[in-house]
Automatic annotation (TrEMBL):
Ranges where the record places region Disordered: 104-206
Organism the protein comes from: Marmota marmota marmota (Alpine marmot)
Database matches in Gene3D superfamilies: Ribonuclease Inhibitor
Family in the record: Belongs to the ANP32 family.
Taxonomic superkingdom: Eukaryota
Protein's UniProt name: Acidic leucine-rich nuclear phosphoprotein 32 family member
BP term (GO), one: regulation of apoptotic process
Length: 206
């Protein structure tokens, strides 16, 4: 809710899971006790560029027990003497004020850290998605072998059927051939008999 001319937090909804709140460049001058009631788990709070003037207003943030980083940059309160020392003494739970700790060490960029973590997580997820689950290849091979066995058995049955029908056809053809041969033999015998009879007749005539 940065730069939206917000002057009061009285209407802030209850956000128990909220960890980071941006309230910079508004006209907030007090009423910070609402934050502890509505957003008790805040870790990062940005109140820079507001109308907060003295420590008594900031004191209400003591109830934000998880608060680690507070930004009051460009606020009127920065004009106070010993501003940083006073804030760190007042809010002993915080580690960073205006982006630096008490030893003037700069705070790590939480957004970059989040991105790096996110990228690493995404990479792990991609690897998990790309790689087959354990036992998957073995199961696939088993399935392929079963398919081959089934196909082989089907082919075997088909070959047997083909072989049987082929043999049966050969037997039928053999039987037909035998019948034709027998008929031819009988015809030849008949012709011989006729010739023999004719020959006998001719001899009698003589």
């Amino acid at each position: 809710m940065a730069n939206v001319e917000l002057s009061s937090l009285a209407q802030l909804p209850s956000l128990n899971k909220l960890l980071k709140l941006e309230l910079s460049d508004n006209i907030i001058s007090g009423g910070l006790e609402v934050l502890a009631e509505k957003c008790p788990n805040l870790i990062y709070l940005n109140l820079s560029g507001n109308k907060i003037k003295d420590l008594s207003i900031v004191e209400a943030l003591q109830n934000l027990k998880n608060l680690k980083s507070l930004d009051l940059f460009n606020g009127e309160i920065k004009n106070l003497e010993d501003y940083r020392e006073s804030i760190f003494e007042l809010l002993q739970q915080i580690t960073y004020l205006d982006g630096f700790d008490q030893e003037e060490n700069e705070a790590p960029d939480s957004e970059e850290d989040d991105d790096e973590d996110g990228d690493e997580d995404d990479g792990d997820e991609e690897e998990d998605e790309a790689g087959p689950p354990e036992g998957y290849e073995e199961e696939e091979k088993d399935d392929e072998e079963e398919d081959k066995d089934e196909a082989g058995s089907e082919l075997g049955e088909g070959e047997e059927e083909v072989g049987l029908s082929y043999l049966m056809k050969e037997e039928i053809q053999d039987e037909e051939g035998k019948e034709d041969e027998e008929e031819e033999e009988e015809g030849l015998r008949g012709e011989k008999r006729k010739r023999d009879a004719e020959d006998d007749g001719e001899e009698e005539d003589d």
